[in-house]
Amino acid sequence: MKEVILIKNGELALKGLNRRTFEDMLIKNMKHRLAPVGKFKFTVAQSTIVAEAVNEDADLDRAVEIISKVFGIAAFSRAIAVSKDFQTILKNAEEYLADDLMGASTFKVEAKRSDKKFPLKSPEICREAGGYLLNKFPHLTVDVHNPDIVVNIEIRDEYAYIHGKQIKGAGGMPTGSAGRAALLISGGIDSPVAGYMMAKRGIELIAVHFASPPYTSERAEQKVHSLLRQVAKYSGRIALWVVPFTEIQEKIKDYCPEDIFTVVMRRMMMRVAQDICARERAAALITGESVGQVASQTMPAIACTDAICEIPVFRPLIGMDKDEVIEISRKIETFDISILPYEDCCTVFTPKHPKTRPTIQYVEEAEACYDFAPLLEQAAKDARFILIENK
Ligand code: ATP
Ligand code: MG
Asked: Relative to the CA of 266, which ligand 1 atom is closest?
């Protein structure tokens, strides 16, 4: 008896001609992510991918934990692969699912037969296996509509697979299938969630963090690493660029009116991030902004930010309430890290009375008082690289 993981790739199945490419990408991602657990072999048949450990001692519990966070998977289940002899199938179903069946009071059998040479048709498999299990577990009754447990028997080319409950996958599209984008990450609650959401749509993340030592501490940067490590459990490894931002912020403080300080700062961040994108072949920016959350996130302020951007800015949280964002941050376990109290470069220079309706003209005039371009270029060049692994 050999235990495997059966993976159903959700939306992928809809992709027609691209399907193979998407499937290959998903398999490559899973291979990479499962590497710390062991070597896995993958086979594909009829929108199901079978993952099988090559080494006997691979920890399948950990593998399942990892698979549950890989995007592009609608559902998966642990299963056993057995030879396609009907008696063997029955005996193994009884043994493999014994605990689940003992704990249930109703069940049904579902069968799929992709190997049409198998002597029994699907309804016959269901009937025979149902009768067999009723006999072995007399406390059970059959409920075809709402059973406590479904016994699945899938007859495929090489083996018959038997499994109980299906587990919901992380959904979305395989990471990398939608290209690469740069997440602007602060230490707050929103930006890690924004990164998670875009990674879910198949985007490979790089990250850009602006640090302003000595106003911001080493611990604040460590917090960003921890947040990204958590996001990387879903998105795969993330290349982080930490940009020295102190001098730029000081110049903004010296030369621009305080009421638009945050908007100017955000525009400077965008300019540096775009430089990094060009270098790293990333095609969009991602932020954790949400309309009305703070003064820099009113519609006029967002318009000012966008005016400086030459590539799309994705803001997946734009229409969400804070509670909704928090709910996701708890789910992906970034919340407890985000609420640690270390300072961010934004909070250090927050104006007392920010302008909620800045105009592009007003902002551009303010910025023209100082030649920021060389500083910004230098900051992009001086950015420190850190690879955030997903282990
Ligand atoms: P977050 O939005 O991440 O919870 P926050 O609410 O403190 O943090 P805002 O002031 O709302 O941050 O900033 C809006 C967005 O700007 C953030 O979601 C993030 O994408 C980006 N940003 C803010 N500060 C930084 C920073 N220090 N480095 C990189 N990006 C930042
Ligand atoms: Mg925010």
From this structure: 16
